[in-house]
Every structure is written in C-alpha cells, then in structure tokens.
Design goal:
By secondary structure, the chain is an alpha/beta fold. Helix content is 47%, strand content 17%. α4 crosses α7 and α7 packs antiparallel against α8.
Length: 420
C-alpha cells in the first residue's frame, strides 16, 4: 500500500515537473497584434536590393521541414530572384562531387547523399534537393545553370577526389603524382590525420596550392574556371581539415574556415556568374548576433557585409526531433514556447514567412520581435533529460537581433535517416 502511494507521489511530481518545463500557455501570442496580416508563403519572399548572401537557418538538424525548406527557399531565390548558387553546412569536397552530377554527370541521388558530409543528410528530402537541381539544369541554358557547394571542413577524402578529378582534366600526369604524395603523407583513411606528419602534410598541400596558382591560366583553360575554383578551395579545405584534427580551437577555427570558404565562393559567383549566394546551415551558425557562444559564422559575415547579409531563421513550436543517442538515434519531443511559431497553429499554411520590415510600427508584432522571446535550437547533440530542461535547447534573444525574417512552423516531424 505504502509502495503504491509512494509511486503515485513520484508520478505526480514527475507530471508536475513536465508541466513546469513543458509548453507555455500560448497566451503570449495575444501580444502579436496583426500578426496574421504579415504572414506570407515562402514563394512571396522578397529580397532587398543589394543583398549578396541570403542565409537560411534551421532550428534543428533533425526535422524534415527544415531540410525541405532548403529546396523550397532555393527554388524561389533561383526562379524569382536569379540566385544560382547554394552553399550548405556540408563537406566542401563531397558537395563538389554532388555538383558534378547536378551539372550533368553520372550518379545516383541515393548514393550521392552519402557525400554531403553527415549521416543526417542521408534522407529523401536531401535527395529531392539534388534531384531538383539536376532536373533544372537539364533544361536550363548554360548561363542559367545552378551550382552547389559545401562549406564544411570536417572530412578530407572527397576533397582529395576533387583535386584528382581536376588534375585528370587539367594535367593528367600530375594526378598520379598528387595521389602518391597525398597517400604517402596523409594516408587513405578518413578522420585519421597523424599528428607527427601534420607539418609534412601541410608542406605538401602548400606545394599543391603553389602549383595551382602558378599554372592558373593553363589549368583553368584546360579544366574550366569552375573546376579550378573547386580544386583551389579543396586544397585549402584539406589544410583546414589537418589543422582541425591536430589541435586547433575546434569551434572558432571551424567557423572561421567556413567563413573563408563562403567568401571565396561568393566572390567567384559574383565575378564569373553574376550571381548572389544562398547559404544554408543551422540557425546557430548563421544568426547575426552570435546566438551561440560556440558559433561565429553569421556574425562575422554580418559584421563585414552589413545589410548585404540577409538572415532568415526558422523555428518550431512543437517538434519530434531525430537526435543522436546511445548506439543509434532517438526521437524526442520538445516545445520551444515561441509565441510566433505558436501563431501558426490555426493558419491553413503549412508554415508562415514573416519579414520583419513588414511589422507595423507600434504594433504588438514589432514589440515582440524586439524583445527576448523564447525560440528553439537543437543540434546534433542529445543528453538524457534535455527535453525537460528548457535552457538546454531554448534561446532568448530578440528575433530582430538574430534575423531579418523567419519561417515558422507550429509542428515539425522527425527526419527519416537511411542506414544503408
């Protein structure tokens, strides 16, 4: 009897704890006067004059809707605003191999998702993005084709393949020499960089960069300017990869390296293709105010580009999120308490877009986006009980400090990651 009473008491306490850390009442949304008058569909997105980078964030890495938004937003930017290049939080070398397929090369979209850099991208939704880009290019004139890049530096072997493919086209004799030198210094296994060989590896990569620079005109003439750019960045990304794995300050160095790659790709796209750039990554990397103490990319770009950097964040009210846990992955439920995302509940739209410049002066919406409201943020990390500790996944900044616009979902569903 006493045991049953004790169990009931424990159950009541747990239920109370869940209520305390669970969803808010939703009453906060009443502050957002006229909110619905400002909500648009993604297709109605406007891009201000002078923008060079449109950055799209994702509140989590583990929800289908945020992966799908990459394609939805890029299609609008491509077909309505003439932006022809997309760079994602994915491996530079692997995304370059995917770009070969997008430009008309051989390949299978199912297998190509394995080159994007992370297991979390092995989904039908990312495959759909690749398929869209390929099908668009199949019927587009040469000067209208679209291009795909990655900006991350956490893998090495696909960058090796990019340089090998480049030398095969630019100077076939150099390919065998490059491969032999690479494998004798750096090896053949991903994620294994012998620290004792770090200096020798970087000296070898310095020689590769010098060879590319000294023969730029001939190589670009033989292989094409796009292939030359990718080989040059791949060599740089390999050096970053070595530093990242041999003692660099991981978070600062990674974001600094991604920023440098983004800037080089942007300058190339503007010069050679007269195109601006869409950037897609986690919200934490792309916010203008550095909402995470571990990420710097968005703030650095915003500090340098100012209003030419246009940030579109995303958020959920309710999520079932696919996260790494134990020996595999787990789906856990979270509530952001974001009053803006809560407002999506009764709308017919799957999601809503608000551009902050549309907030009426003196309105509840203007007041809400200018104060520190809760928003959700989940990355590739899960610790037991996180769903019951708001501060582990909730930010409290003014939305207008982080973004210029937001795409909001009331409820989002978990990604379905393939295991093959």
């Amino acid at each position: 009897m006493r045991k049953n009473i004790a169990l009931k008491m424990i159950g009541s306490l747990l239920a109370a704890a869940v209520m305390i850390v669970g969803c808010g009442k939703g009453a906060e949304v009443k502050e957002v006067e006229g909110f619905r008058d400002t909500v648009k569909e993604i297709g109605d997105l406007r891009i201000p004059e002078g923008v060079r980078i449109v950055a799209l964030g994702e509140a989590t890495h583990g929800n289908r809707e945020f992966q799908q938004s990459k394609k939805e937003v890029f299609r609008v930017l491509n077909e309505k605003h003439g932006i022809k290049a997309l760079i994602i939080e994915g491996d530079f070398g692997g995304c370059s191999l995917v770009n070969d397929y997008i430009q008309g090369g051989d390949g299978d979209t199912h297998e190509l998702t394995k080159h994007l850099g992370y297991r979390l991208y092995r989904t039908d939704d990312m495959e759909d993005l690749i398929r869209y880009m390929r099908e668009y290019n199949d019927s587009a004139p040469e000067d209208e084709k679209i291009r795909f890049y990655g900006m991350d530096i956490q893998k090495g072997m696909d960058n090796k393949a990019v340089i090998e493919n480049f030398y095969e086209a630019a100077d076939p004799a150099k390919r065998a020499e490059f491969t032999q030198n690479f494998e004798s210094t750096m090896g053949t296994e991903e994620y294994e960089v012998p620290k004792e060989k770090a200096d020798a590896i970087k000296a070898f990569l310095d020689d590769v960069e010098k060879d590319l620079e000294n023969n730029m005109e001939a190589y670009a003439g033989a292989a094409g300017k796009d292939a030359y750019l990718r080989a040059s960045v791949a060599a740089k990304a390999l050096k970053y990869y070595v530093d990242l794995n041999t003692g660099a300050d991981y978070n600062r160095f990674r974001d600094d390296s991604m920023r440098d790659i983004v800037k080089q790709v942007l300058e190339f796209e503007e010069k050679e293709h007269q195109s601006e750039l869409m950037l897609a990554c986690h919200n934490g990397h792309m916010t203008k105010n550095q909402s995470s103490r571990f990420t710097f990319l968005g703030k650095d770009l915003y500090d340098e580009l100012g209003s030419a950097y246009y940030a579109i964040g995303t958020d959920f009210y309710l999520t079932k999120c696919n996260l790494p846990g134990g020996d595999g992955r787990v789906v856990k439920e979270f509530c952001s308490d974001d009053p803006l995302a809560y407002s999506m509940k009764d709308l017919d739209l799957k999601c809503g877009l608000i551009q902050f410049e549309d907030a009426p002066e003196g309105s509840g919406l203007e007041e809400t986006i200018s104060k520190g409201i809760p928003t959700g943020s989940l990355g590739e990390d899960y610790r037991p009980g996180m769903e019951f500790v708001k501060k582990s996944y909730q930010l409290k900044f003014a939305p207008e400090e982080m973004y210029d616009a937001m795409i909001l979902y009331y409820e989002v569903t978990p990604t379905e990651i393939r295991t093959d």
